[in-house]
Amino acid sequence: QVQLVESGGGLVQAGGSLRLSCAASRLTFSTYAMGWFRQVPGRERELVAAISWDGGRTDYADSVEGRFTISRDNAKNTVYLQMNNLKPEDTAVYYCAARPYEPSTVRYSYQYWGQGTQVTVSS
User: Fold this and answer.
1) Tens digit of pLDDT for each residue in 3-41?
2) b/e map of 40-50 (b: 16 or more CB within 10 Å)?
C-alpha cells in the first residue's frame, strides 16, 4: 500500500521559516508529480505548490509565490516544501499528494494523499 508521510510542521512566528518533507513508499516515485495542499477548517483544500515527475516544472499558488519553494529528491523518494517569510494566513494542515507525471491544480486528480502536518504561524 502506497504511503505518503509528511513531517516538519510546527509552530513558528511570522517571518520565520519551516521546511516540510513528504516521504513516499511503495510508489514508483520518479513517475509521479507531487503536490502540496493546505486546508483550514471550513474551507476547501487548496493547492500550494506542485512539481512534475522530473522536477522540470513547478507551479505555485499566487499567495505563496516567491516565499515557498517545492523541490524533490527522486533518489530519496521525498518531496520538500521550503516555506519562508511565513504569515499567519499560512496556518493550515499541509498535505502532500501524488498523481502520475505532470502536476495539476485539480485536487481530485491526485491519487494518493498523506495524513497531513499542522503548520501554525503566530503573529
Assistant:
1) 999 999 999 999 999 999 999 999 999 999 999 999 999
2) eeeeebebbbb
The residue written with cell numbers 505532470 in the block is 102
88: helix, strand or coil? helix
The pLDDT of 48-58, averaged and rounded, is 96
- Cα dihedral 103, 106, 107, 109 sign: negative
**Rounded CA separation 12/88 (Å):** 9
pLDDT in tens, 60-106: 999 999 999 999 999 999 999 999 999 999 999 999 999 998 999 89
Cα(64)–Cα(61) distance, integer angstroms? 6
Bridge partners (DSSP) of residue 81 are 20, 70
Residue 110 pLDDT: 97
Residue 60 · residue 47 · CB < 8 Å: no
Select from 121, 79, 85, 82 the least CA-distant residue to 97: 79
